[in-house]
Amino acid sequence: MSDAGVEFLGAPIAYLDNAASTPLCPEAIEAMSPLHREVYANPTGAHRMARDTRRLIDDARDVMAEALGSAPGEIVFTGGGTEGDNLAVVGRQMQAGGVAVCSAIEHHAVLAPVERLGGRVVAVDASGVIDFDALAAALDGDATVVSVMLANNETGMVQPLEEVAEAVRAAAPQAVLHTDAVQAFAWLDVAALAACADLVSVSAHKFGGPKGVGALVVREGVELWPLLLGGGQERGLRPGTHNASGIVGMAAAAEVVLKSRAEQAVRLAGLRDRLADGVLGAVENTVETGDRSGKVAGSAHLCFEGVESEALLFLLEDAGVYASAASSCSSGAQDPSHVLAAMGYDRALAGGALRLSLGYQTTDADVDRALAVIPGAVARLRDFGAG
């Protein structure tokens, strides 16, 4: 990327909302193009073009298996992270019965199904890490699926998944462990860190791939009830015509991540630190949520006293800085983040949350623009409130 930054509708912007969605990487665009123009057949067909489409899907399955540390036959292509999370949690509970368990800071794609199923929600500590005493109390012979995300979508905090797995195996050996690795894949070696999990979900648009496609690792021997019925695709767990171009684009983006992840993590952690430190140094009464050393490299999450997130986001957008307040699925909601509530932040402070998330295309120029804009925007809102 050039340090000149990017433009949107002819105006220069700093796009710092990569936790919501990243831009398509060039490699994904190039890989997808033939499936729109030349190899567009239904992969379940018998003729040559159908076989070629199916071969490209099979090749993509091999790539995703390597990226996620599984066998190719353990990869189930989905319509994204939400579907993967639901298939893991609901599909397992429907198959095995019993009780679903998750942490209090899960994405709503996990939290809502667990609550709808009458499951158990486990507390976290003030840093956003799961409370192991509370987890132990929630695990018994009734638990059949436990879901703990690898990296949080709001704060970027990384969970000690291996320790979670040990606790689950000790107290509820009949339960399977699912991890939502949607926010982790761009930054962490998911193949290694989630090797202890029975089910692992990712979503392509969080790491340079297209929207509307993801993958769920279903380890050998783990049985799920399909959410959809009507076909035999993906071992019957995800029936329907494959999103062939999306699957191929996801695999291309994953290959880029595997090659560049370590280098990008170092580069972007430096930019993230400069951004967070710059804001904290320039704006009084600002709180950084969680321990930065325990976060993924691209996440800066701050709370401003005396400021409302929606008003701040409006001023930032007007000045060419694009960010979010919390999960993109919750933006615009009147209630403060459930993640911050679980971490013990009061409503007033949580109401001034700002999520600044960096991505592979983020440059020094983006950080410079944000640092030039954020302090003044916060001061303007505080002055307005004081008046």
Roughly what percent helix? Answer: 40-55%
Low-confidence stretches: none
Order of helical and strand elements: EEHHEHEHEHEHEHEEHEEHEHHEH
Mean pLDDT: 95
Largest pleated sheet? 7 strands, mixed
The total count of strands amounts to 13
Question: How would you write the strand order of the largest sheet?
Answer: 3-9-8-7-6-4-5
Rg from alpha-carbon coordinates: 21 Å
How far apart are the termini?
43 Å
Anisotropy-based shape: globular
Continuous helix count: 12
Sheet/helix structural class: alpha/beta
The percent range for strand residues is 5-15%
Describe the structure.
This protein is of the alpha/beta class. It contains twelve helices and 13 strands. Helix 2 runs parallel beside helix 8 (244-282). The longest helix has 39 residues, at 244-282. The protein starts with 5 loop residues before the first strand and ends with a helix.
Short description:
Helices cover 42% and strands 14% of the residues. The protein is of the alpha/beta class.
